[in-house]
Amino acid sequence: MSTLTATITSAQKFELTATPEDASGAPAPAPGPLVWTDPDTTLGTFTPAADGLSGLFTPVQPPVAGVAHITAGIPSVPDFPSVEADITVTIPLADHLVLTGQVVP
């Protein structure tokens, strides 16, 4: 299984694309429909595109930090290798304070 890893902040989105290739590494038609799985939606949601070969991961709001595991495969073809993405979602923390004040009656 091939695994892609990425780190994004909770304010970013991440696009994944699966490209079917033949044994020599050249693009080739997929032998069946691609199926994406996102078993844990507590960190975000994965929405496949209309072409089925790509999709967009969007972190939930309010944000939750952790690692989302997205898998793409062709379950209709036995022993066809799946691919996986581990997307780490981080929550940017403050790096300074801003002090304000006002006159009150």
Give a description of the structure.
With 105 residues, the chain is an all-beta fold. The chain has a single domain (2-90), classed as Immunoglobulin-like. Helix content is 0%, strand content 40%. It contains no helices and seven strands. It has strands at residues 2-9, 14-17, 35-37, 44-48, 54-59, 66-73, 83-90. The strands form two sheets. A four-stranded mixed β-sheet has the order 1-7-6-3, with no helix packed on it. Strands 2-5-4 form a three-stranded antiparallel β-sheet, with no helix packed on it. A hairpin with a 5-residue loop joins strand 4 (44-48) and strand 5 (54-59). It starts with a strand and ends in a 15-residue tail after the last strand. The mean pLDDT is 91.
Summarize it.
The protein has 105 residues and is an all-beta fold.
Question: Can you lay out the helices and strands and say which pair or pack?
Answer:
Blueprint: E1 2-9, E2 14-17, E3 35-37, E4 44-48, E5 54-59, E6 66-73, E7 83-90
Parallel strand pairs: 1-7
Antiparallel strand pairs: 2-5, 3-6, 4-5, 6-7
